[in-house]
Predict the 3D structure of the following.
Amino acid sequence: MRTYLDHAATTPLLDCARDAMVGTLGMTGNASSLHGAGRASRRRVEESREVIAGALGVVPSEVIFTAGGTEADNLAVKGLYWARSGQDPERRRVLAARIEHHAVLDPVHWLGEHEGAEVVWLDVDREGRVDAAQVRAELEAHPGRTALVAVMWANNEVGTVQPIAEIAAACTRAGVPLHVDAVQALGSIPVDASLPDTMAISSHKLGGPLGVGALIARRGLELTPLTHGGGQERQVRSGTLDVPSIVGFAAAVDHVLGDIAARSARIQLLRDDLLARILAVAPDSIVNGALGGPEARLPGNAHVSFPGCESDALLMLLDAAGVEVSTGSACSAGVPEPSHVLLGMGIDPVRARSSLRFSLGHPTTQEDVDALVEALPAVLERAGRAGQIRVSSQMAAAARDGA
Amino acid sequence: MKVLAAMSGGVDSAVAAARAVAAGHEVTGVHLALSRNPASYRSGARGCCTIEDSRDAWRAADILGIPFYVWDMSQEFAADVVDDFLAEYAAGRTPNPCLRCNERIKFAAVLDRGRALGFDAVCTGHYARLIDGPGGRELHRASDPGKDQSYVLGVLDADQLAGCLFPLGDSLKSEVRAEAAALELSVANKPDSHDICFIPTGDTAGFLRDRLGAAPGEIRAADTGEVVGTHEGAYAFTVGQRRGVGLGVPASDGARRYVVDVDISTSRVLVGPAAMLDVDRITTIRPRWCGPRLDGPAHLGVQVRAHGEEIPADVRPAVDGFVADLETPLRGVAPGQAAVLYDGTRVVGSGTIARGAA
């Protein structure tokens, strides 16, 4: 019996989403075809678009289906930058939070490196919160120079919820489009889709299938396409539509956004219990991010530093004990860097490397929390011993290095 | 046992891990990330340290059904292997970084961390045998003389050997490849690695020049003292080297000339005929004993290169190392290389060559 506490990475497919997908997997038509089979597929796509638009309170034409959150973020960041700086070459500034997901962080960085963007990284406080006053001040200090602002709704690592309403107001006043990555927020906390100009959402984070997401883009907003081809989605996004995934996505959104308050309250109770019991078994551990209800922090997120332990050792030992968690920062096959989110919050690299993210989701139960708390003391004891050896071996290596 | 299988992405370590699984051990695969900025793809004869190699290791672990993680050892590797490599060259010695990596990283930093995390041993694809003898665990040459890697393990002490598992020691390379193919491991036909893993281009001289800077000097003939060329850094030369010396003036007798001495303090490189390279006595420092230390004179075999021949010698302990009087002269013994001592197939220990003398 394994305990899965990595729902922020991906969460199991909801039954309603699976059932909806299964019902379309045998369909033949390309949703762009003009015959009956094509129309049948198109109908399922448009019904799904209406469901998602309805759940979010936007109009259907504002839903642009993509292959996931990362594509939606890229389309917004690059598409807005190219469109805005194309209309007015003076608009080359991009304001983005330091703690953005790599799906925003990297395209913004790339625009700075290759497309002449002048990037301003927005600071966060020790809890990981962007200061709306800084956004306002930056916009006012350089009127007519900013192409876009990008601030995520809630952070994927530490769960801190951003003051999107205030930031959106500042952007509206300055006439600058705001992109919000709501991949972690949607389905977890209330999201007012009317605030941002573009908003990235993902299906699999809320119980839909992998490989599909959407960019919610205000009507009439100009976006330069990233992919060119059939122009299936509002002439901005090309590619044959993935009907089963879109149908599953819509089913999941419909289900999750229907009872968000009750679900979130249940998950938050479990999360608070988990945090309290971690602090009880590991009194020197430190909770990262904002504390509080869904207005401050994602209800399913717990992010904790365990001083003296290395996160990769903790992850491995918990994995061996049947508990699946995350170090919070992605790493391919190279060397994991300390999280830019934690560093941005002013946390030192050593503590950053001692941190784990526990994320709860719709199937999480009290037994999952119990299993983690039960496994943790032995894991911390071993990881602490390995951590001491690591520190002494690195100090010895550094001493030899200096000699 | 709980076994940590170090998986480079090559065929040997994958089959070693497979054998550990088959032997009933509880095996966890780890790929050691030794570079902060790994290249994406393999190039040349390297067999590890790229993202592609890491993926290969991961796929092998998948097929074996064992957990797999990447361990960041880049800081230790930079300090203990790469910086040491540079310091040794800067001091006029020619190090073997594979021995250092085994001594300080694989069977030290990794083994210690593994033990703390609850593992009993580190399993690798080295071709060497471990035999539990009356006096403790012994390290022996592999059964396949063509693949024997006991030389690069001659730096491991008894405590390190107690935490080792070398499942390939009794096998031929061809058998290991066949076994990999039978297990449907995608690495079954991956080429062997040869070069220094952190110098992907194979251009050691360029690597040294970039990091140690230019230190120009003269190349002189050892016999006449005549200046026969110039160089950009004496550290780039190794005693016994013939290629790439770049002499402008041919020897008077037309014979091939070799580097016979390198003096870092004066940036002077001496060249001379092959006969000047013959060495009868080797003096070493930094001894490492694979079991009991040598406590008196003994007749042993000495090997000074990874794939060099073993020369019988009279060996006696010295203050900080040992002295070996060779029965037949060795040609081209460079300071910094390891001299590994053998008693039959058993590895007795090793030392770093301080100097050779005729």
